[in-house]
Amino acid sequence: MSKASIEASLGAALSLENVSVSFPIYHGGSRSLKKSLLFRGSGGQLATDANDRITVEALRHVSLQFEVGDRVALIGSNGAGKTTLLRVMAGVYEPVSGTARTRGRISPMFDISLGIDSEISGYDNIRLRGLILGLSPEEIEERMADIVEFTELGDYLDIPVRTYSSGMMTRLTFAVATCFEPEILLMDEWIMAGDAAFLSKAQHRVETFVEKASILVLASHSAEVLKRWCNKGVLMHKGEVRFEGELAQTLDAYAEVTSRDTV
Ligand SMILES: Nc1ncnc2c1ncn2[C@@H]1O[C@H](COP(=O)(O)OP(=O)(O)OP(=O)(O)O)[C@@H](O)[C@H]1O
């Protein structure tokens, strides 16, 4: 049995072990400024590294395991570490320490405009994005008609995307991102962007797309959105996993954390 077929028979999985991520934000300069930054810091998330740089500890010792059927809500206040966690899962960030392992085809549905080249045409961007997502040129051409039809961009697809309005850009990126079936789907609230007509059209496509994924991780601030899509939750707080469990319990834990923080 080939490695690929063994992996396919095992099903999708995602596991993080003791993952930490930090960003250097300040080097040299006044000691007193550093001191006051560290003192006021974002609830203990600021630290200094071995080179005396101030760093933001965006994730600290995060361990999580997801398997087929998990529909995970990533919950937490601004700066809690949700986006950083999604980026580690997608392989965009390497952990400073710890390990992140995934099995199965991943579709990152966040930071989506990062993969768009504004100087090339809509058609070429579709091809580029398809290749980044791991499709062969033949698979991309097979899906092209469907993508083109969904975008409703017509002749605009022949010209550079820097000429597109933001709504047109949303249509293009959305159509491309949902054109193949991922096993692990990583999303944020980006999916809610767009005009009303587009959203109602997008709704059906998102539903089918999400249902087909083996694992979903969705970061959102909206309890309504999370209740609709997810069956379990992870509460992030200041870079750490504060709670993990049933969605309703996770939302309760979040309400408790936010009420305590605002007192
Ligand atoms: N590139 C970066 N450079 C420096 N600090 C960063 C960077 N990216 C994230 N951070 C910091 O890491 C922490 C976690 O940020 P992250 O974007 O993961 O939070 P979040 O939970 O997604 O927040 P939000 O709900 O506001 O989007 C924050 O303190 C943030 O300022």
UniProtKB/TrEMBL annotation:
Note the CDD domains from the entry: ABC_KpsT_Wzt
Q: Which organism is it from?
A: Nitrobacter hamburgensis (strain DSM 10229 / NCIMB 13809 / X14)
| MF-aspect GO terms | ABC-type transporter activity; ATP binding; ATP hydrolysis activity
* Protein family according to the UniProt entry: Belongs to the ABC transporter superfamily.
Alphabetized UniProt keyword annotations? ATP-binding, Nucleotide-binding, Transport
InterPro entries for this protein: ABC_transporter-like_ATP-bd, ABC_transporter-like_CS, ABC_transpr_TagH-like, Bact_Polysacc_Export_ATP-bd, P-loop_NTPase
Q: Please provide one cellular component term from the Gene Ontology annotations of this protein.
A: membrane
Q: Which domain of life is it from?
A: Bacteria
Protein name according to UniProt: ABC transporter related protein
PANTHER family according to UniProt: TEICHOIC ACIDS EXPORT ATP-BINDING PROTEIN TAGH
Q: What sequence ranges are listed for the domain ABC transporter?
A: 33-263
